[in-house]
Design brief:
The structure is a single chain. With about 375 residues, the protein is of the alpha+beta class. The chain has 2 domains: about 80 residues, Phosphorylase Kinase, domain 1; about 220 residues, Transferase(Phosphotransferase), domain 1. About 30% of the residues lie in helices and about 15% in strands. It has 11 helices and 16 strands.
Length: about 375
């Protein structure tokens, strides 16, 4: 492991990246457990590689996720075993079916065998074309319902992103049958940072503000990340572009920019999902209902008032000193970095909200004690 400088607690910058080193695992042509013949790589993450594989015993095509050693920051095999335990407790059509698993023995890596989803990931889909509003809403409904099931079992996924959403085909009906994959960094509700060490683990572009700050992690974290995913699916652009800490910390100083061509109804739902305060985000089941109404065209635009601007002005420059330059290993999308608990002021801190709102010519955000819950705001309907 390499770090950006040997800084003590008093001199450590607000965020310091941890450089990952990895050791390659078995490649195409390898045979695992005298049974699974690995084929082409169909996915790669910070701690694992996914292969299309042939199961010699059953003759079927499967997906095999093989852990890669990432030392010494985190126990990749341990994470693989953790994912096995999580998925063993879950059974939902929106999740990948687990067929077999091996926790590794030191000489061979841990691996997880699952059903093979033949279609594209959402990341691959939106590289070719963005989603229409109806498509994005239907995908959002499917993912929210899956997350509602996961959250009801006391689990937070913590890494919702386009590469972890698998779509069985290229039709609109396939979007509604999308599956959520990769529970390698899933955690229990009300957890904080990784149990391996005091680091935050996740993909920087999709982290929630509470993940970036190292606060407790609860179901609203997944709702926030899914909101960013839907924005990207509609626009083809990351809500928070950049690498590493630059991407992760951007959400502490500005809200996500909402798709300009989306209906006001969908923009309002996305605004709620990506609210900076976790308590302002809808629960997964409620978000599914709202997106279902958007997909059906019954969520009336004019009655959705979120108390937040739908068009953000450019964020003013901040005087935050991020310390020494931060580095991440190229090709590794799952970032691991340290964060100090120092608060970061930004244009959406409490002292700046009124000014931003007035600039955008929308009502200023009232205090929590004087405004209705987001769920109450979004239940109102126009008289037709």
């Amino acid at each position: 492991m390499a770090r950006d400088g040997a800084l003590g607690p008093a001199t450590r910058p607000v965020a310091a990246a941890v450089l990952l080193s990895s050791r390659a695992g078995p490649g195409p042509g390898s045979l695992l457990n005298d049974r699974y013949e690995l084929g082409q790589v169909i996915g790669r993450g910070g701690m694992s590689t996914v292969h299309r594989a042939h199961d010699r015993r059953t003759g079927r095509q499967v997906a095999v996720k093989v852990s890669r050693s990432v030392a010494p920051v985190i126990d990749a095999d341990g994470r693989a075993r953790h994912e096995m335990d999580v998925l063993a407790a879950l059974d939902d059509p929106g999740l990948i079916a687990v067929l077999d698993a091996d926790g590794g023995d030191g000489s061979t890596p841990a691996y997880l065998v699952t059903e093979l989803v033949a279609g594209p990931t959402l990341a691959e889909w939106i590289r070719d074309s963005t989603l229409t509003e109806a498509q994005a809403a239907r995908l959002g409904v499917a993912m929210c319902r899956t997350l509602a099931y996961v959250h009801a079992h006391g689990i937070v996924h913590c890494d919702v992103k386009p590469a972890n959403i698998l779509i069985p085909g290229r039709t609109e009906a396939d979007l509604a049958a999308a599956k959520l994959a990769d529970f390698g960094i899933a955690t229990a509700v009300d957890s904080t940072r990784s149990a391996d060490t005091d680091v935050t683990i996740g993909t920087p572009n999709y982290l929630s503000p509470e993940q970036v700050r190292g606060d407790r992690i609860n179901p609203p974290t997944d709702i926030y990340s899914l909101g960013l995913v839907l924005i990207e699916a509609l626009t083809g652009t990351l809500a928070y572009p950049g690498d590493g800490v630059e991407a992760a910390t951007a959400r502490l100083t500005r809200s996500a920019t909402l798709p300009s061509r989306a209906s006001d109804g969908l923009r309002a739902v996305l605004a709620a999902m990506t609210a900076l305060d976790p308590l302002d985000r809808p629960a997964a089941g409620h978000a599914a209902d709202l997106l279902d109404e958007v997909a059906g065209g019954s969520l009336v635009d004019e009655i959705l008032t979120l108390g937040r601007p739908v068009a953000e002005p450019p964020a003013p420059a901040t005087s935050v000193n991020w310390g020494s330059p931060l580095r991440f290993t190229p090709g590794i999308t799952t970032a691991i970095f340290r964060l100090s608990p120092s608060p970061i002021a930004g244009p959406h801190s409490s002292s700046a909200i009124t000014k931003v709102s007035r600039f955008c010519s929308v009502p200023a955000i009232p205090s929590r004690a004087h405004r209705p819950a987001a769920s109450d705001q979004m239940k109102r309907r126009a008289v037709m």
